[in-house]
Every structure is written in structure tokens, then in C-alpha cells.
Amino acid sequence: MFDAVLSQTNETVDVESGEKNENDVDHGHRINVELGVDRPKVSKYVLMSVKNSFTDFHIDFGGTSVYYSIVQGCKQFLMFPPTERNLTQYERWSTSDSQNTTWFADLIAPLSHKERMKLKRQVAEAENKELETDTEVFGLGTSFSPDVDDAYINNGFKVDINAGDLLLLPSGWIHSVYTPEDSIILGGNFLNLMSLRTHLKVYDIEVSTKVPERFKFPSFIKIRQAKAKG
């Protein structure tokens, strides 16, 4: 009975995207026009989730960032940042024969004191050299200070969002979602230049794990190449 409940999936309904501000961080619309390809219907949608539905750990297609606003109900997210260590475990788990019987979070070992101090030093050195700490050290879409909490570096954390809350999920974060009660959500996925390396890394994982084309971000390679040239 429990497995049957967890196997339920959230129903997704596409909604007409409407106009988009050219100055928005989401640059996909302008690039799609230039390339002559249809705009992916992923930038604005409605999710309707039934009580006790569950979505197992995943990374949103193309490592897209996500905005997630609860209209009614609530959601619980378990989230892990896209460090090299976590992404390696995720890729292995995704291709494992025991994926359906293995809880992904059990594969993420807590940071040891030595590992923690090493990462802190890397961040401090990167900041002193004025490097992009998110790409040079973590491959994330966010910069860090040396006193950042372990949960944000590697160990993960749980986020509860309720009606009226807005969650901005950074690029490439590994996450699962549980719905304690019937819920309605407004959300959308978008690409951004700040997370370019993460987008490409996630796409590589999608290729490696043989994700079907219909589940990848539409025209991803064309959009990324066009933006890189532009």
C-alpha cells in the first residue's frame, strides 16, 4: 500500500506562457526566436498534486532552475547541492539496477572534518583570487563564504513550503518532493548564464544515463551554443 502511494506522480498541465520581458534572466525566448524553434512550454505551468504523491530524487531537465509557488496545499523538498561528489553518486544511482529499492539520500555520506576544512580553504582561496567560486569549486549557481553550512555544501536539507511561499530551486540541485495534502502550484523552469557549466554537466549526465529525448529540455544544445556564440 505504501509503495503504491509513493508511485503516484504529479499531473502537469501546460499553460500558455504569454509575453516575456527581454531583460529577464531567462534568455531562452529570444534565442528561440533567433533560431526559429518553438519556445519550450516549460517556463510557466500549473501542477496539481494529490495527497501523498511523491516524486523520487531527480534533477530538472538540463539543470534548469525552477520557481515554485504554492497556491494551495504544501510541499516538502529534500535537496542536495550539485557538488561533483553528489553528482557522481546520483549518476551511479540513476543507472543502478537497485535504484527503485535504494534511498538516494543514504548514499550521501556526511562531510568529514577534513573534507569540510578542505572545501572551506578552496572557497577562501577562490574568493581571494576573485574566481567564480560557484564554477571553479562547486559547479553551482551560487557563491559561498568560508563559513557556509555543511548542509549547503554537501549534506542536504529539507524545505517545507506552504500556501503563499515561493521556492527558487538553483540549477542542478538533486531533490525529491512529497505532497502531504492536495496541492496546486504555479511554477516554471528556466536556463540562465550564471549556471552555464552546471547546465552542461547535467546534460552530460542525461546523455550518460540515457534519458529519452522527450524528457530533455527542448532544443537545449541549440540554445546553449547560440548563447555561447552571442
Report what the structure shows:
The protein is α+β, with helices and mostly antiparallel strands. The chain folds into two domains: 2-107 and 156-229, Jelly Rolls (Sandwich), CATH 2.60.120.650; 109-146, no CATH class. The chain is built from eight helices and seven strands; from the N terminus they run αβαβββααααβββαα. It has helices spanning 2-6, 28-35, 84-94, 113-128, 133-138, 150-155, 196-208, 220-229, and strands at 11-14, 45-49, 54-58, 65-80, 157-162, 166-169, 174-190. Strands 1, 2, 3, 4, 5, 6 and 7 form a seven-stranded antiparallel β-sheet that branches. Helix 2 (28-35) packs across helix 8. It is globular, with a radius of gyration of 18 Å. The N and C termini lie far apart (53 Å). Residues 1-25 and 130-144 have low confidence and may be disordered.
Strand content: 15-25%
Average pLDDT, all residues = 75
The CATH H-level superfamily of the largest domain is Cupin
Helix content: 25-40%
Total strand count, please? 7
Helix and strand composition category: alpha+beta
Radius of gyration: 18 Å
Q: Specify the CATH architecture of the largest domain.
A: Sandwich
Structure annotation, total helices: 8
Q: Separation of termini?
A: 53 Å
In sequence order, what are the helices and strands, one letter per element? HEHEEEHHHHEEEHH
CATH fold node name of the largest domain = Jelly Rolls
* The number of domains: 2
Please identify the top-level CATH class of the largest domain. Mainly Beta
Ranges where pLDDT stays below 50 over 5 or more residues in a row are: 1-25, 130-144
3D shape: globular
Q: Characterize the largest beta sheet: strand count, sense, and whether it forms a barrel.
A: 7 strands, antiparallel
